[in-house]
Amino acid sequence: MIPPANDIILELKDVSFNYPDGSPGLVDCSLSLLRGSRTVLLGPNGAGKTTLFLHCNGILLPASGKVLFNGKPLDYGRQGLHDIRSRIGLVFQNPDSQLFSASVLEDVSFGPINLGLDSQAVRERAKDALSAVGMDDYADKPVHNLSYGQKKRVCIAGVLAMRPQVMILDEPTAGLDVEMRHKLMDILQRLHGEGMTVIMATHDVDLAYSWADDVCILDHGRSVMECPAGELPDKALVLERYGLGVPHVARIYRLLATRGMFPPEERTPRSCAELARLLKEYSD
């Protein structure tokens, strides 16, 4: 089913891009991202996920095809790029690629300053953004003294201070310990609950299954599959073909179901916590 045009916030239409050495980054890639959705891009290294993201806010220009935001092609003029980058925020995989100011507050304030806001508005936006990611107490800390996970949260705060409609995150959980990973996902869940469209790339099919509304698989610069995240357990052949595997909780659930522990009409749980609740419910 094709979604209504007004439900699509960001769209790539037959986008192709080659790197300077001539190797393809995207090949006739088409993808529609829904307003207010949580979308995950899956795919092996070199699939084109980062390249696709760099097209979404005009850092890279397509060799052919179009990128559309709210139904209109991106404007690659100076003002057009300034506008689109205030509406579509991009958080890079490596936070050191994004942080360049001496202190946390200076870094988070950089975007609002570039928007031409007055000093009071800049302070308010920076304060709100740091509060949203739980970094209020670190405003005056030197960026280089932060942990890896703290740097990632400051990067998100820097994007939030621009108050974008869309947040794109490239491998946001990579390199994080379990606690920091949970904190980050809680932040993203809260932002989504407030109406933000959130898009992320990851290799973690379990994360995609438990968190996303929609999933897209990229391979060799092409979108090879799009589906609701809840359908991932039924896409085993496709997932295996691209080295992703079926979500672990779905494997465990189906093994238990074959042993009669759940009724056949029961919906496959999306997380281990949901599976645990089902086990308790049917064992009581």
Fold topology:
Layout: E1 8-18, E2 24-34, E3 38-42, H1 49-56, E4 64-69, E5 72-73, H2 78-87, E6 88-91, H3 104-114, H4 119-132, H5 148-160, E7 166-170, H6 178-193, E8 197-201, H7 205-211, E9 214-219, E10 222-228, H8 236-241, H9 248-258, H10 272-283
Parallel strand pairs: 3-8, 3-9, 6-7, 7-8
Antiparallel strand pairs: 1-2, 1-4, 4-5, 9-10
Helix pairs in contact: 3-4, 3-5, 4-5
How does this structure look, described?
Helix content is 38%, strand content 22%. It is an alpha/beta fold and 284 residues long. It folds into two domains: 5-243, P-loop containing nucleotide triphosphate hydrolases (Rossmann fold, 3-Layer(aba) Sandwich); 247-284. The strands form two sheets. Strands 6-7-8-3-9-10 form a six-stranded mixed β-sheet, with helices on both faces. Strands 2-1-4-5 form a four-stranded antiparallel β-sheet, covered by helices on one side. The radius of gyration is 20 Å and the shape is globular. The mean pLDDT is 92.
